[in-house]
Amino acid sequence: MLRVALTTALVAVAVADITSATTVYRDAGRGWQSLLLLVLLTLFLLAAHTWVFHTAPFLRKPVERFPFHQVPEGRAVTLQEEARMARDVSLAEAKIFAAAITMPQQFRRRVVEEYTPDRRTLTKVCTVDLQIPGKLMKGNGSKAVHVPVLINRKGELLDDFHIFHANNDETQWLSYRQYLSLAAKVLHVLLLAAENRKITEPLSAAADRAELLALQGIVKRIDRRAPAPVDSSGVEAIGGLRVAHPVALKMAAVFVQQLTSNYPIVASIANVDHEPRHRFKYQLTQTPDIKFTPARSRRRWSLPGYVRLIFGARPVTLTVDIAQAATAESYHLHVHAPNDLYLAGQEAVGLSAALARTADGAPTPPHCRFRRRLGQPHAHFYCRYMPVFQDGERPTLVFKFFEVPPGSVLRATITATATFAILWLIGFISSRYVESDTDAPAFLLAFPALAATWLGFDAPSRKLLEGTMSARVCLIFTAVLSLAGSALFLLHESFPDDFAWPKLPDGRSFLGVTDVWWAVVVGIAFVNALRIGYQCLVRTWEYSHLLAKEVE
Fold it and tell me: In whole angstroms, what is the distance from residue 400 CA to residue 317 CA?
């Protein structure tokens, strides 16, 4: 009812505005105060309608449709009992799995991430080359081991996730229940090794309590909608134990710390004794974090960004996270942009602190580089020996793309130039020859508006990276100028022949146009065509320079 009442009032006030405007036109000099009040009232009602029915519902916190239930503590007790009775995980297998969780850079020889932009998302394909260290393979009697392919934060979904072998055959990974069972068995074996006990012997009372606390933290869910402190009681309890082998205890503590906050995707490697290196490939769909401000700005919204969205000019700047760089010895990142865009700039943001540190066991500080050549639709980043990122560090790569000329800028240039020529010709004739027996100029002036619409907004885009805001603005200006020229010509035709239109003072003219209003329209069209033409030449020179530039 509120919407109906507000809409009815808005329509009524708008009709009153039109009626008042007609009255003012007929009786000039009277009624301007009432018209101004009606206009202000219309704007107020329009703002209230927009806020109540459009803005407020989006700013309001969404109502949670699904309740959040925590895992009962009995689940940890069940896992602990299962781990006590299990005999299928050896000490070597436990060390391999725990080391792959706590020190992934010792297993991951190379990680290659490839991003392909779609309409609103990014398709990510990641190739992981794994090699189990030889010292961990000693004493391993199993033909298959479990390793994490991806370590994901708890509470975050993986969209359209698939894992493939090296031959591109899709493979399965452990279910959540299977992963929890494996994690409990590995933790139990590590605690037994720390206390120098056999697989058939029970843990001490203190280690048993610490194991239960650790399993409670591992199975506990994390609600990302309401962040809470991570339960570290299990890590503290394990770290406080007095054992015979502190190295195994430290591995168990770090293992629990990682699994308390993260959820690994675990796959199995067969024939581990015969193949030293193994390759997995996983694919998923990511929704990039869109900002309407520059990459280094903390603000997320800006008026120019909102205008770009209105005109359909999506950003041509792509920001990619490189958290995986610290989990591998060698890391490559590729961005495959559409062929109608070329790479114009690239930079690393938030990486300076990590570059000043040296990773454990690395011979040198991190070695990073971009592919130096620009002008192609492909971007490549490489780094080696990247240290573990500290809390609060979130380094990203920012890639800036431009449209390959000739493109929408050239089409906008042609349309703007044609509009200027038509406006100048008709303005020149109308300002010097009053009488005209044809309406052809009105139809001729409407053509650039149709051409601007057809050349700039005809085909729907299917790409995340698409832009040329300047071309869109130029086409809109072109359409408005052509319609203004048509209206100005019709006004000249509708007024009596003896009506004196204002002329430029002192007999001056602009490109031969003496009428003031035609000079204004032609002048704006000239600036519009000159600006977009200049930008077309500059962008073409930049692109040709990048293509011909020698790579040092």
Answer: 4
